[in-house]
Amino acid sequence: MKEGLIYISLELDLNPKIDLHTHSNASDGILSPRSLVQYAVEHGLSGIALTDHDTLAGISEAECEASKINNFIFVPGIELSTEYNNIEIHILGYHINLNDEIFRKKISIISDARTSRLNQMVSKLQNIGIEFNSDTLNNLEKIKNPGRLHLARVLKNMKVVSTIDEAFQKYLSRGSPGYFPRFKLTPNEAIHLIRMANGIPVLAHPGLIKSDELVSYLMKYPFEGIEVYYPSHSKADIQKYTSIAQKHDLLITGGSDFHAPPESGIRNNSIGYCSVPISSISKMIKKNNRLP
Questions:
Q1: Same domain membership, residue 281 and residue 213
Q2: 0.70 cut: is pTM over it?
């Protein structure tokens, strides 16, 4: 993405609607990276960050499409899944150096582990009597960066469950018969990886952690931002995380965690549901040396 394009965008649009948390079908979203950018434009957004789970595979395609659109801000990103004391912690990384070899090798290991995990979960579900036909198994094998959401959608399509939430509750959550533990990256490891690749580590949706004490503890790590604006965050949450951001001099980010359009039939947050203040984008770009 040209530096000048981002700069002009910030100057021309005084109130841009920018969603810094979206997913494409490079991970567990529905739209292709190219279609995601087009969809964002159609819905009045001035920019997005693509933050697929544990992969950078969709960045080049999305960035190429974004470069064709006047004054559209595109932020390359990633969402890394980590674990602390058996609690899942998601960490967003923005402006990763896509050519960083160490980062790419680690992501490749994580991707392989995701595939292995999916196979283990399918086997566990088969062992309790859930039958997958050959076409379904073949389609699952083709997924390059699989996650539990992919399997949840399959169970819904097979009418084993009525909803995605039911799939997680009955079969795919910790302690359920189809659950298999994933490759464990610690928060500290994820932050280090992002920073080593010249990226900006941000604590994702702290409200989902459901522990103010743990969020407070995580602030000891070298985060550079916190996702203040998120669909499930209440006004009190927003005030609380804004205060934390100010106390620790962190970037304030936000996004919808978009995965699919409403017409897909999948319960999901609307793209652009949460946007960020222009000051956050300016600070992020300056922090990553994208403005003089």
A1: yes
A2: yes
